[in-house]
What does this fold into?
Amino acid sequence: MALSIPQYKTWRTAKNLACNFQYTEAIALYKSIETDMRNLQEWRSDKTERDNLFHQAMFFGDYCGALADSGFYEEAKEKGDFALKCIEQGNISSLEYIYYNIGNIYLFQHEYEQSCKWFELALKGATYFYTSVNHYLVNYGISLYYLREFDRAKEKFQLAISSSKGTKYNKTFEPFFYMSKISKLENEEKESQKYEKMYLTRLKKYSQIELEWAISTMKDKKEILEDYTKK
It folds into this structure.
């Protein structure tokens, strides 16, 4: 992002705050430069239209994600729609994480058929921000699980697990939690116990605030929190 100061600094600070679960402060900063970012072409006329559209898409995609994580779903949809318009206008193909953020809006509201559509788009375009693919697979798998499409859900979780080996994403508990539940439903008790052990090992390494945000919109949050408090 090669934007001029102070917009770039404000944007970067907002991203960092959101990464540390300080969403109220992050959203306030996004809002403070929203008008500037909507009118980027006016004050950044020395850049190409496509370059400006790229930065607008990124900004509103990030803003959408912070709002979705905070439960402001209608506002998140509006920011996501603006980001999508920028992507379409600029013929931009490297910002698939925006599809993921939009998918989360529907996942968090338990609209699983809609979330699957967006996670599928995110995976199809996953080339540039490839390290995020694990998140796309996990949330796609969760959506499929609640649609009771267990075979497809298993496929996504298994891909998430195999692709995360040796990376920081191997610390996430969700794919192991759901694989344990699916295995149990299929009467594969040994497999269920194996995945349950891996799930609990990872769960117990979460801080309280990390866990609160991770499970805030999950249907199974009561069960997960009970497992966590047993540590």
Summary: The chain has 14 helices and no strands. The first helix runs from residue 7 to 19. Residues 204 and 228 are 6 Å apart (CA to CA).
